[in-house]
Design a protein that fits this description.
alpha/beta, Transcription Regulator spoIIAA, 4 domains, five-stranded parallel β-sheet, about 20% strand, binds 5'-deoxyadenosine, binds iron/sulfur cluster
């Protein structure tokens, strides 16, 4: 489905005449970040200008429901806006994203926050301009939307917030139903964009000077499994990566998140032979206990996970790993948790995103009994964090004395002379450079490590 929208121009005159501005508050994952860039693109094509959240006329919340605490954040922020809505003219409040797919959220908004103008579910961007037109021009509210659209929306305007790095969604939705996760319920089944649409987007980005691409999906390596047309059947994620590799100008390809259960040898081979795929793999572990992994419906064991890591390390010893870990899944025992610590020790992650299990109504795990005390869960999170932070300096030190290709991203916040960038391993590096180096790839030799970043010097002639 192409995004053509007559409402964009219908509303523009009013927006420009009244100098309307917008602000977007994004919660959650990179998919949401990417969706927010599209909402910015749509709003700017209507004539809205970006502004501070305190003064903007339109405040859009792009929500996440993966963990419970985001709900309190949203309701706190909505409550805060009530007085503005009462006192000021031309204030519009929009709630979009995963939370809007949940009935209890819609009900709560209707009852406690009736001043919200529009609530839109996921995959509903095409109707956003019309709903906004109704809200602004016809003064009509729309708080009833709860539906996962099935069609992929192509050619949605997008406003990238970076000049050299861009994210591109390749697959929407998820079929995996991990027992703790709400995503398959709110984002629907897997839908892959066609290779042609993806390649066209990346070609355009390359022409504009983008050097680094992040391919996004809830499960990128099941890309293509849903293709029904004969011409696309058998088109896989490795094949897509090989096509993107050919695009001149794109120098770094990243992707997230792959699922360990679909991490094929073909994918490992593709990474090994690629000159552009980043030497950083985000491989969500969730738990190191095979028993808990089974309860989580992850469809791999601790041994299988470690085998993939070993194969990748063998393919290229410079590959670094990052991961997601949930502690305190129902009935995770001390022994199960130790298995997680064991995997962390064996792999040596450069980045660990760690979460305490959060019960999500409607998921299978929500019905499981859970005897573990909340304090114990917090304690496990802290122990995991300590282990990770203990290991990090050692991993960093291995990089000292070696040089790495770094995309120079911009000036360091704290020091005028210093610039920052990331290595292929996604390590932040700080070094002296010139303004002209921004957007270029430079060889940087690492000189020292500082836990969350490295210091180095450019060694190009
Ligand atoms: N509780 C805690 N963490 C969760 N995640 C997903 N669902 C939950 C939940 N119910 C985490 C997983 C996933 C990441 C995006 O969020 O680790 O990989
Ligand atoms: Fe959630 Fe599992 Fe799908 Fe990831 S793969 S979005 S954790 S159900």
């Amino acid at each position: 489905m192409r995004f053509v929208n007559s409402y964009l121009s219908k509303i523009k005159e009013y927006v420009i005449k009244n100098n309307l501005t917008y602000s977007i508050d994004t919660m959650g994952c990179q998919m949401n970040e990417n969706d927010s860039l599209k909402y910015s693109g749509i709003l700017e094509s209507m004539g809205f200008k970006e502004a501070d959240s305190k003064t903007a006329n339109l405040i859009l919340f792009n929500t996440c429901c993966v963990r419970e605490n985001a709900e309190n954040t949203l309701f706190g922020r909505l409550g805060f806006l009530k007085s503005r809505k009462i006192k000021e003219k031309n204030v519009y409040i929009v709630v979009v994203g995963c939370m809007s797919q949940q009935k209890h959220i819609l009900d709560k908004i209707k009852v406690s926050y009736p001043f919200v103008d529009i609530v839109l579910g996921t995959n509903a961007m095409s109707i956003f301009p019309e709903k906004l037109y109704n809200a602004i021009i016809n003064n009509k509210k729309s708080i009833e939307y709860i539906e996962v659209g099935n069609e992929i929306e192509e050619e949605v305007p997008i406003k990238y917030d970076d000049k050299f790095k861009a994210s591109v969604s390749i697959i929407y939705g998820c079929n995996n139903f991990c027992s703790y996760c709400i995503v398959p319920y709110v984002r629907g089944r897997e839908r892959s964009r066609t290779p042609q649409d993806i390649i066209n987007d990346i070609n355009e980005l390359a022409k504009k000077g983008y050097k680094e691409i992040m391919l996004l999906g809830q499960n990128v390596n099941s890309y293509g499994n849903d293709f029904k047309e004969d011409s696309l059947k058998g088109y896989t994620f490795p094949k897509l990566l090989k096509e993107i590799e050919k695009i001149n100008g794109i120098e770094i390809i990243r992707f997230m998140s792959p699922h360990p259960k679909d991490f094929s040898d073909e994918l490992i081979e593709t990474i090994k032979n690629s000159k552009k795929i980043a030497r950083q793999i985000h491989l969500p572990l969730q738990s190191g206990s095979s028993k808990i992994l089974k309860e989580m419906n992850r469809k791999y064991t601790k041994e299988k996970y470690l085998e993939i890591v070993e194969k990748l390390k063998k393919a290229d010893k410079n590959i670094s790993f990052s991961t997601d870990i949930i502690v305190g899944f129902p009935n995770e025992t001390e022994q199960d948790f130790k298995e997680t610590l064991d995997v962390v020790k064996k792999v040596g992650f450069d980045q660990v995103y760690m979460f305490i299990y959060s019960k999500r109504v409607g998921t299978r795990a929500a019905n499981m009994t859970d005897e573990t005390k909340p304090e114990e869960k917090v304690n496990r999170l802290e122990r995991l964090k300590s282990l990770y932070e203990e290991m990090l300096p050692e991993l960093n030190k291995k990089m000292i004395g070696k040089s790495y290709k770094v995309l120079v991203e911009g000036k360091s916040k704290n020091n005028d002379k210093l610039f920052t960038g990331r290595t292929s391993q996604n390590k932040v590096v700080v070094f002296e450079a010139n303004k002209q180096d921004i957007g270029k790839i430079k060889n940087v030799e690492i000189e020292s490590e500082h836990l969350w970043y490295l210091k180095g010097k450019i060694v190009d002639d």
